[in-house]
Design a protein that fits this description.
By secondary structure, the chain is α/β, with parallel strands linked by helices. It is built from eight helices and eight strands. The chain has two domains: 118 residues, Rossmann fold, CATH 3.40.50; 126 residues, 3-Layer(aba) Sandwich (Rossmann fold), CATH 3.40.50.970. The strands form two sheets. The chain has a four-stranded mixed β-sheet, with helices on both faces. The protein has a four-stranded parallel β-sheet with strand order 6-5-7-8, with helices on one face. Helix 1 links the parallel strand 2 and strand 3. Bound molecules: iron/sulfur cluster. The site of iron/sulfur cluster has 7 residues, from loops.
């Protein structure tokens, strides 16, 4: 099963998923951990069984308290969002501070986890893979005085050095619709270029392209089509020719929608 229990202490149980599992392992060394590798559908029986064994159940999750709300709906008392912030990413410091607050009921925000030597390590921001064709695209765009709107995918990396060639990044599909929005708002100072990947195009970009066609937009849209959902794990999409269950199906081509 993707869900497993790391049995350690007998008093405190911690439910965590994804990155927060690592934080829980590091910070709650005396606690047992229920690691949810497949959090939905909720493994209710496993959660009940786990909670039953501990006096205190702590839930650590980023952003919305999705797991905690569900666990509480099972009638189980938890400590979670009141102690760990729901805005931004968690990190070892924030989890340690939440742990302090649970144990001491204090609101002291003591930075204590970041190893001083770690701050001396060179930063390694995400970059395009070596040989990625997007490198050439963003280099070319960096030579043009234009406004480039992007959205979510590998091509978001164009915002970082050395290219720094995305002016906007918003939700999926916004590479197209922001360009169209600026066009319709009357922006004429520079050419408008929208970037979208194939997976994002099929997910949320097609309607934006239709809108440009329908309302006679003048922006230029570039679809970076690598036939893959590259950034998030190679999930299939309508352009890969396979269903999500890996069965053969029709292959959609972005250019067919653009004609
Ligand atoms: S995974 Fe993303 S960054 Fe790497 S080669 Fe593919 S599109 Fe480029």
């Amino acid at each position: 099963s993707q869900n497993r229990i790391i049995a350690r202490g007998k008093e405190v149980g911690v439910v965590a998923s994804g990155m927060t599992f690592q934080y829980a392992m590091e910070e709650f060394k005396e606690a047992s951990i229920l690691k949810l590798g497949l959090s939905y559908p909720f493994p209710d029986d496993l959660i009940r069984e786990f909670a039953h064994n501990y006096q205190e159940l702590i839930v650590i999750e980023e952003l919305d308290n999705f797991l905690e709300e569900h666990i509480r709906s099972l009638g189980i008392k938890t400590k979670g969002r009141d102690f760990f912030p729901g805005i931004g990413e968690l990190n070892p410091d924030k989890v340690a501070q939440g742990h302090d607050r649970i144990e001491n009921s204090s609101v002291l925000l003591v930075e204590k986890k970041v190893d001083k030597e770690a701050t001396l390590l060179p930063a390694r921001p995400p970059v395009f893979c070596a040989g990625c064709p997007s490198r050439g695209l963003f280099y070319a765009l960096s030579q043009i005085d234009c406004v480039v709107s992007g959205d979510i995918g590998c091509y978001s990396l164009g915002v970082f050095p050395p290219y720094e060639r995305l002016d906007t990044i918003l939700c999926m599909g916004a590479g197209i619709t922001v360009a169209q929005g600026m066009d319709k708002a009357g922006f004429r100072d520079k050419p408008l270029i929208g970037i979208v990947g194939d997976s994002t195009f099929f997910h949320a970009g097609m309607t934006g392209l239709l809108e440009i066609s329908y309302n006679k937009g003048i922006s230029t849209i570039v679809i970076v089509d690598n036939r893959a959902t590259a950034m998030t794990g190679l999930q299939d999409h309508p352009g890969t020719g396979r269903t999500l269950m890996k069965k053969r199906t029709h292959t959609a081509y972005p250019e067919d929608f653009a004609r």
